[in-house]
Here is the input.
Amino acid sequence: MEKRGKMSWKIVTLLLFLATAAFLAGTVTAIPGTDGVTRSAPADPIPGAEFEVKLTINGERPLVVGIVETIPEGFEFVSTSHHPDQYDVSGQKIIFAVINETEILYRVKASSSGVDSFTGTWIDMLSQKEGSIAGTGGLEEGSTPTPTPATTPTPEVPCFEAFFTTLTLVIAGRFVVLLRNNEEGGRVG
Amino acid sequence: MRNVLSYILVMGLIGSTMLLTVMPAIAIGIPGDDDGNDNLTEKELASNILNYMLGEGDLSLYELRDAAHVYAHWNGMPRTIVDTAERTVTIYKPVKTIVALSSDSARALRILGDEDKVVGISETIKKHPYYFPEMSHRKSVGTWKEVDWEEIVALEPDLLITYATGSINADLAADKLDPFGITVVGLYLYVTDEYEQIFDEHEKLAILLEKEEAADKYLKWHDGYETRVHDFIAGKEKPKVFMTYTGGSIGKIMEIASYGPDAIDYTLCDKAGGSPITEVFSTKYPKVSAEWVLRENPDIIILKGGGVFGGWDNETEPANLIAQTLVGKNWGDINAIENNKIYAVPWSITNGLEHIYGEVLLAKICHPELDIDPTEVYKEFLEDFLRVEYPEGKVLVYPSLAS
Here is the structure.
């Protein structure tokens, strides 16, 4: 009887721990700024033809984000509906300053010879977050690009989440093992 | 040998003086406000972002993030207040580091939840690790009357909080620190002459630190209790109260110190539903004789004592204070003595941000039927606002009140 009482106490403790972990994980993710930038582009553009690329800035306002898009060699930037003061073009790089907007459209003329991938990076100016632009269409980057310009990376929340989740699972696992051992010990006794 | 030591000493002095004079002045203004008109426009912010992303900008990412913050959260404008020294204080970017030169400002920072920003403290804060668990471990830069300016400059704080007047007053601090781009604000953050001032100062500090919500929470908590006390005592007969303090009453038969109508202790007693017998005096801290008190025959005697922070660790000390106060005074026939209504209360009840505890305590002493437990009020202040555990066993009034 006493053993059962001890067991239920441990189960309650485990549940409380998991609930607290879930709560904390939810809390730390709720920081301001963008959750990331994604790119939509045609999977198979016609060589030499113009097509539209859409960048979606995920997150709630206020949003202040810097974006560097690098279009493939041979491709040409044509135009954008983005505010004229808030973009610049340098070689294959298109730079956007995004202030309280969640979408950027720009047009590109495809190369007449073959298809290469787009790459891009973003820096959130209202949080410590930065990252690579994830593609949802066909012309996606193949590898993770180096952020431009070089910055001193700061600990990001997702890393903390991963660490915290791992820690939670390890502790929870240890708890289960402990419970089993105790249960077995009870039987023997 | 002596000459060598003298030489080293002189060079050291010259070197330390040079540090303050040679260090370059730091430009102030909103980062990215290229035309310097104290209004960061969307165009300016965008231009700086583009330049940075191209690797060509003047601003670091750190500065650019400050600029984005000012644009997004401050509408592109600096934050300005007028401090208690009547100086216009302007913040051009988020405050990330603070030097606090008093335990009063430390308390305010705890209430606002900004203790993590503190990089430098005064000795008083260092001596109270219980109330300031994190801050007390920060670098000490001196006392309320003498600080090490070089140490402060080396800490590179965005903001220094000091008293409006006094040895290290706001004007003096600004003279020393303005050249280094360190903003100085002069706030007492304890009650000096009137209660409104402390709330005003608290709100102003909250504006500088973007902590208006936390300040509002504190004010609502305070106002809630004040309203309850106010409503409860309305229309009730006020008992006659004599307020004194340990230094002004122990061992004295003549010239016992008290509080006149201009003193905050008098005001607090009045707000708590008591009628101070010193109403007739025109001075702030009138001196009275034991005989005068006997003639006035107060219903209650309040003796203020103890340290800066609330309460005593045991009942012996306040009991002794009361006993010493009564020596040689022949107050046996006074109502307060006959009815055992002489109380020792801690200094902190009247002046600090926790003074609502003092108001409730005095109200409870004057009107025992008041349905508020003063200890609970103090407990809430410590646990909800200073965020420290209530120290069980603390004597916050002696003798204890019937609940």
Notes: The first helix of chain B runs from residue 2 to 22. Chain B touches chain A at residues 42-43, 45-47, 49-50, 52-55, 61, 64-65, 67-69, 71-73 (CB under 8 Å).
